[in-house]
Amino acid sequence: xxxxxxxxxxxxxxxxxxxxxxxxxxxxxxxxxxxxxxxxxxxxxxxxxxxxxxxxxxxxxxxxxxxxxxxxxxxxxxxxxxxxxxxxxxxxxxxxxxxxxxxxxxxxxxxxxxxxxxxxxxxxxxxxxxxxxxxxxxxxxxxxxxxxxxxxxxxxxxxxxxxxxxxxxxxxxxxxxxxxxxxxxxxxxxxxxxxxxxxxxxxxxxxxxxxxxxxxxxxxxxxxxxxxxxxxxxxxxxxxxxxxxxxxxxxxxxxxxxxxxxxxxxxxxxxxxxxxxxxxxxxxxxxxxxxxxxxxxxxxxxxxxxxxxxxxxxxxxxxxxxxxxxxxxxxxxxxxxxxxxxxxxxxxxxxxxxxxxxxxxxxxxxxxxxxxxxxxxxxxxxxxxxxxxxxxxxxxxxxxxxxxxxxxxxxxxxxxxxxxxxxxxxxxxxxxxxxxxxxxxxxxxxxxxxxxxxxxxxxxxxxxxxxxxxxxxxxxxxxxxxxxxxxxxxxxxxxxxxxxxxxxxxxxxxxxxxxxxxxxxxxxxxxxxxxxxxxxxxxxxxxxxxxxxxxxxxxxxxxxxxxxxxxxxxxxxxxxxxxxxxxxxxxxxxxxxxxxxxxxxxxxxxxxxxxxxxxxxxxxxxxxxxxxxxxxxxxxxxxxxxxxxxxxxxxxxxxxxxxxxxx
Length: 663
Known about the structure:
The protein has 663 residues and is α+β, with helices and mostly antiparallel strands. Strand 12 (196-199) and strand 13 (204-206) form a beta hairpin. The longest helix has 30 residues, at 391-420.
């Protein structure tokens, strides 16, 4: 048998002389995205990297193979596309200098999140973390590879929906896991049929954990939200849009809505304009009424009016309110005078299959000893021996309330008497009056309502204003003055009016001076760069006042820059652009799906009359190359800017790997 190789998609071995995997049909010559790791790369001499599975604003996920244990894994790479780029033909990440602080801050949050998840490795309902390490200027997390299918595909295979009996058997272990995550301080923020998997043993597994900024609009990273399942507060990064356990409650209820009705719930953003979400029982009458109401209460648009915790949601979902009986206090009476108590059905027990778990053990308790169940009273209630309330019992509550009111009134009178007590008449010496007034003045601060200075002022200079405002929003109020500064990037705090270490009252107004970025910079070259790469180049150069506009021309290469303008006049790379003047740099580009073509005759007639004569081409040019006209800027080098990789293979762009964090 000849040499064998791994398929980079299914990670099965096949003969090396074949180019197409016989198991999954993957062609090894398929081109890959240069922004991500090249398939076949080996990390830490142990993990073989396969094809890209998915990516978002936080990073990318690849299929992989652990060469030491010979098992399939999933590799997650921290790579926020807004802050960094890939060094060509290498796994190393190059971080934009202006975004270095944000890159490291979000990487620290990413590392802490995955360390917290690793401590829960004994929980079988979340994807297991197997390893974590720092390399190539970033951090990698190794997860188990879940053999199964997404909940969305599982629903499609089951006629689009599930019955309440099926849901009540499948979901309780997942509810338990989410409750444990909340107790650990982890909020998922992306619970949906896309992040819930069902494995071959019919167990639900929760995946898709990300830092909070990747699940919130405008929080600093390119966001990824699941339409119909994201809570309203995730569409704003304002401090008023508080997120918490109730955010995951919305996602859980939205998943239950989809599973029980077969319909995706209306997006929360649309509901804010016009809330026309139908109750689940209206779409599927077989859904129990109390389950339908609990789901709707868990999808309230207001976070404060929503069911707050997963424990409360589970209680609402699995309770079985009886229409025939209700609970009342049981005074000491002969037991023979009451009817035989009727046992309530177990709130967490599916028909014929008793369940066990966290919520079952905590909530499935018997009714208190001092309670009995009886029917609603009617004309025949005398035969059940229901105790009749006498006159003394009726007067108990009013008498107690009256005594309490009297006590409160006496307390108020005692405290108000010194205020209204008339001043004593008599001849007093001026020294006595002066002493009395001095004493009152000394005691005045004790009676003042001014808050005490008990909060120490931190050093904010050099930190990002957006992150500091979010971090200290409960301690200070900030007033920012934005100024241009050539030494610091935008959003960096330059000055603060309260000295570091000063004790100030909570809620103190702190005035800050914040950088708007450079006053101006030279326009970078765009030849050979994609649109996103050029946008990063503009930010790195310090040009903040620009706009991307799709070009109306059909000449050029898809996903490239075609022209630059300021005030309607063409400008060239290398020219100085001033942010301070308030003008805007207009960047014209061709999108990735642009339908490019050549029209030589039209291009020749549209060229200026004073254009230099050019020889007629002997062969037709490539379809994506426009004819050269006089208005074009001088040709620039076509090679992309060279990014110097670290000289030391063990040292990253901004320090040794130990500075980033390791497992």
